[in-house]
Amino acid sequence: MAGQCLTGSCFLAGVIFIGGLSASLPVLNLHAVVGVIFIHELEREDFKDTFPFSMDDHEEPSFDPPITFHANLLDHPDLPRWLRYIQRTPFDTGYLYGSATSKDVGKQTIEVMAYNRYTFETVRQTMEIRISSSPEGEMPYQADFLVKNWDVEEMLPKDAQESFQEAVDSMWEQEGLTVINITSALDRGGRVPLPIENRKEGVYVKVGSKDPFTTCLTEAKSPDNLYRCRLEQQPIITCYDSFSPRFQVDWCNLTLIDLTTINATEMVPVYGDGVLEEGTEFNPPDDAPDRMFFSTRGT
């Protein structure tokens, strides 16, 4: 019948129609340095005015459309292992962030696709990231802080990092700190918080310096404070806690890494991202010893 079409034909026509509603932004050239946090904001405004319908109408939309992003390495289904993406809601800014390693030196091409969730339009942008080694080399003294009352995307803006660095500066008593990496606590084995107001996932912030740790930092890992941590009590820090109240640091989860005392043959403790190295295979144990999970009372 003239007024009808086969389901497959209509579906194919719809796919072709939607596939044609796409646009592209100019190629973006970015730079990342090994051992330094890389952050790129995916601003919704940069993509919103480029959607085909918006360009045809030449009018400001009467509503703020929800926009989501998908990012991947060119000719790959996902991002490179050092790079992560986060966007809390379709109305928030998206972020590409991570810390490149010496294995990543070179050029990587990232494809970003923005989706208008109201009109199903898409906008594509290609990013060329040039990764180079740090002229100063790896920071020999590194401290990894767990901030319990922040989410990862809240720590990614520049002003938030500067505020955190100021707090670290006052306890490390030196300037020139470098933010090495920022990681969500969920990516490090943390639990998803209950859906209660003001509950946060937590974020790990690793900073590095060429200057040794101060007594203020090392006393958090003293035997007495480690014992308090085993009792689920916070360590006693004699110096002024410059993080509180804005940054609630879990001092029991503070990690101090002194690369000057580690031999080349020793393994440096590195928290992985849950992705196996290429060519490797996970072999779980065949069996595990019995464990008693419930205490038994004697009669």
- Rg computed from alpha carbons, rounded to a whole number of angstroms: 24 Å
SSE pattern, N- to C-terminal: HEEEHHEEEEEEHHEEHHE
Unreliable segments (pLDDT under 50, ≥5 consecutive)?
Answer: 1-20
Structural class: alpha+beta
Helicity, as a percent range? 10-25%
Distance between termini? 84 Å
Overall morphology: globular
Domain Dystroglycan-type cadherin-like: 29-138
GO molecular function: calcium ion binding
Membrane topology: Single-pass membrane protein
Protein name: Alpha-sarcoglycan isoform X3
What does this structure look like?
The protein is of the alpha+beta class and 299 residues long. It is 19% helix and 26% strand. The protein contains seven helices and twelve strands. The strands form three sheets. Strands 1, 2, 4, 7 and 8 form a five-stranded mixed sheet that branches. It has a four-stranded antiparallel sheet with strand order 10-11-9-12, with no helix packed on it. The chain has a three-stranded antiparallel sheet with strand order 3-6-5, with no helix packed on it. A hairpin with a 5-residue loop joins strand 7 (106-116) and strand 8. The longest helix is centred in the middle third of the chain and has 15 residues, at 158-172. The protein is globular, with a radius of gyration of 24 Å.
